[in-house]
Amino acid sequence: MAGGLKALVIDFGGQYTHLIARRCRELGVYSEIVEPEDAFKKLDEGGFGAIILSGGPRSVLQPDSPKIDLMKLLSYNIPILGICYGHQLIAKSFGGEIRAGKVREYGRTLVEVLEKDALFDGLPDRLMVWMSHGDTVIKPPRGFRATSVSEDGAITSMTNGSGICSTQFHPEVTHTQYGRKILENFLRRICGIEAWWNPGDRVEELIDEIRSKVGMDEKVICAVSGGVDSVTTATIVSRAVGDRLYCIFVDHGLMRKGEVEHVRRSLKKIGIRNLRIVYARERFLSKLKGVEDPEEKRRIIGEEFIKVFEEEAKKIPGIKWLAQGTIYPDRVESGRAGRRAALIKSHHNVGALPKRMNLKLLEPLRDFYKDEVREIARKLGIPDEIVSRHPFPGPGLAVRIIGEVTGEKLEICREANAIVEEEFRRAGVYNKVWQAFAVVCDDRWVGVMGDERVHGYIVIIRAVESVDGMTADWHRIDHELLDRIARRITREIPRVTMVAYAVTSKPPSTIEPC
Questions:
Q1: Is residue 299 a part of any domain in this protein?
Q2: Beta bridge partners of 395
Q3: pLDDT category, 2, cuts 50, 70, 90?
């Protein structure tokens, strides 16, 4: 990759590891995440000017806790920043004293800056920071000095003045005051890395990379959904191989209202001519009949999608490559990004097809977050109606329906989702949230319509704010907007008798319900 020096984030299993990587990228420094056992191999490749040790759920005092050879790490002469677990690991490795925590400290904490070293340059003397830890460093190692402390005297940051520094708190979390400035000080002042990373600048590189891989007589197929990820992928591949790209859109009957026409119109606008639309509603719904478990629904949809896609692909002679719009959070939440990453939910990207059909895989967006994909899309000239469109799950409305997917619940969900999106656009807040949608519950609520007692469905409205989908906060919706949505849903969808609003962030909740 052309450009300046990169940051290497060594992952000890922390829930905020990917936020560290995101913040580095926001500051114009490309970052990569590796596990401790892979760190030295990655460093040997060269090109790194910063090392960050992430947080983690374990205690460094446990004999089987994750470790890394810090003396070997120092031999690369690259500045190191330890965060939370990384802070404690540095202290323990160099002889500092650590007190085992009886109660985990979680939340905002006031700290006092003792020394305005390079990390705290330009910051006030007192900061409100975000803590999430059990153990505490009570004495720094020889050669280190404390640069900040908490109100109870615990060491919240330290440095050796020669390129190693650490913080007990999480500067990558937005709850930490001046957290971005602290990371910027590390990257700029301590590591000497100037901003150089801009996803939009990689467009030609991505196109050239595909052009160099795909032979002149080889064809590519791409699954498209109408969302920014798949459309951007298709556009990049189209720029590289032209009419040798064939796009396949599988309408599994679980799409948003008007989705087929939207996809047809969108791809035509950006010049993609080879589009095949497969209508497979009954095929998918019959497979989902009687299925209530969310993960089983995802598995069935993914498996059937692969079968349909495979059947259509075989109708096109000369296909050698499969392109798909996998982005970094897909890999993370599918448990593919690291051995310590937990499987949150499976995704139905057609990942089984390359081996099954003897195809080679193209994933040009595999290392980008959603906001970076949008930046690339704008650079490609993709219309804003696609770029700013809210993310939509691969399994479609099936994961916005609690319990079995029935025809009745599916139509309620489709109509309710359309109302939510329409009202958010009308209120001018559609582009201010990450996602806004409706969920249909399996439970019922007694209602009164006219003079009749009815037993109708419950619809939950969900709207969240996020940058990359890795974490999200619930949107503080205007009550007048919520009232309009609720009245429209109960008026226009008579089978609904209750509308509620979801107010749980991610974590602990996921964004989508299933």
A1: yes
A2: none
A3: low
